[in-house]
Design goal:
By secondary structure, this protein is α/β, with parallel strands linked by helices. It has two domains: 2-185, Thiamin diphosphate (ThDP)-binding fold, Pyr/PP domains (Rossmann fold); 198-324, Rossmann fold, CATH 3.40.50.920. Helices cover 39% and strands 20% of the residues. The protein has helices at residues 6-20, 46-50, 62-74, 89-106, 129-132, 136-140, 153-165, 214-226, 245-255, 271-281, 304-310, 314-324, and strands spanning 2-4, 24-28, 55-57, 78-83, 116-121, 146-148, 170-175, 183-185, 198-201, 206-210, 232-236, 239-241, 258-265, 291-295. The strands form three sheets. A seven-stranded mixed sheet has the order 3-2-4-5-7-6-12, sandwiched between helices. A five-stranded mixed sheet has the order 9-11-10-13-14, sandwiched between helices. Helix 10 links the parallel strand 13 (258-265) and strand 14. Helix 1 packs parallel to helix 7 and helix 8 (214-226) packs across helix 12. The radius of gyration is 19 Å and the shape is globular. The two termini are 38 Å apart.
Length: 325
């Protein structure tokens, strides 16, 4: 078992899939130049290994990058494109939402359109609201798109390999803060099915549903709650669409309580979808009203102290859990 950061795990998945399938290529702004020269980052060394035909630096145009991917997928290739920051998805959304997400449906299922859109996401770098906004709920709202948000390096590798092999478009969102957080990663062929959540910590008193960087907050809070006799079960969604409702409902029916934790803003956030599923299908199991712990309804500040205020922390989660236990 090797120990890698998430950026290295993504790099390994890309390299393995490019070796396995000559139809896989990557494209994006700076994917082959010095901007990604650190060995901790996802496309490090790939240009030197595979050449400019399969590692394509693009103009600074997210719309053009997305259009390239849609056309290449329709021609039978398997593009993996990078949208440098999550908010820039708005510039690429015409091709991804209006074309990639709908083409298989319009073909009556006769055609496949395999493409992966990798996006960096998450606050914590002082990069300001134009770079740090979390938009996973926007993407999950679009039928035809699969949405993956890994929390660990091992999950990132296994899920990205599955995403590249999927016959449908997959939006793969990587939190930048996790690129440098090492964790164990299996070597060689290793796949995780898309659409399957993972119980990262079992518990009996309350279910905490989360994903991406907030898994670390959830596990940290769960450790502190356990010291006070409260056992939190932490469910890592890993995939938002398709949503693993079975794992969520089984956990809530066991614990009787639910807190949903995410970094994105509160209103319209994906916590609302998780809450709706539980209310519709497991209301009778709830012992207390559910709670949401999220970012506030403001743009992500660039000021480090204000940005720390924006990002949900262990104290907020612990308070929400104690409120209903």
């Amino acid at each position: 078992m090797q120990k890698l950061g998430m950026g290295q795990a993504v790099n390994q998945a890309l390299r393995e899939e490019m070796v396995r399938d000559p139809g896989v290529f990557i494209a994006g702004e700076g994917v082959g130049v010095s901007i990604h020269d650190s060995p901790m980052l996802p496309t490090h060394g790939l240009l030197a290994e595979f050449g400019p035909k399969r590692v394509k630096d693009t103009p600074v145009s997210e719309a053009a990058i997305a259009g390239l991917a849609v056309g290449a997928a329709e021609a039978g290739l398997r593009p993996v494109i990078e949208i440098m920051f999550n908010p820039f998805f708005t510039l690429a959304s015409d091709m991804i939402v209006n074309h990639a997400a709908k083409l298989r449906y319009l073909s009556g299922g006769k055609s496949s359109f395999p493409l992966v859109v990798r996006m960096k996401s998450g606050a914590g770098f002082g990069a300001g609201c134009q770079h740090s906004h979390n938009l996973e709920a926007w993407v999950a709202h679009c039928p035809g798109l699969k949405v993956v948000m890994p929390s660990t390096p091992a999950d990132a590798k296994g899920l990205l390999k599955s995403a590249i092999r999927d016959p449908n478009p997959v939006v793969f969102i990587e939190d930048m803060m996790l690129y440098f957080a090492p964790g164990p990663v299996p070597e060689g062929e290793y796949l995780i099915p898309i659409g399957k959540a993972d119980v990262k910590r079992p518990g009996r008193d309350v279910t905490v549903v989360t994903w991406s960087k907030m898994l670390g907050v959830a596990l940290g809070a769960a450790g502190k709650l356990a010291a006070e006799g409260i056992e939190a079960e932490v469910v890592d969604l890993r995939t938002l669409s398709p949503l693993d409702t079975e794992t969520i409902l089984a956990s809530v029916r066991k614990t009787g309580r639910l807190v949903v934790l995410h970094e994105a803003s509160r209103t319209g956030g994906f916590a609302g979808e998780v809450a709706a599923v539980v209310m519709e299908q497991a209301f009778e199991s709830l012992k207390a009203p559910l709670r949401r712990v999220t970012g506030p309804d403001i743009p992500v500040p660039a000021s480090p102290p204000l940005e720390r205020f924006y990002i949900p922390d262990e104290g907020q989660l612990i308070a929400a859990v104690k409120d209903i236990v």
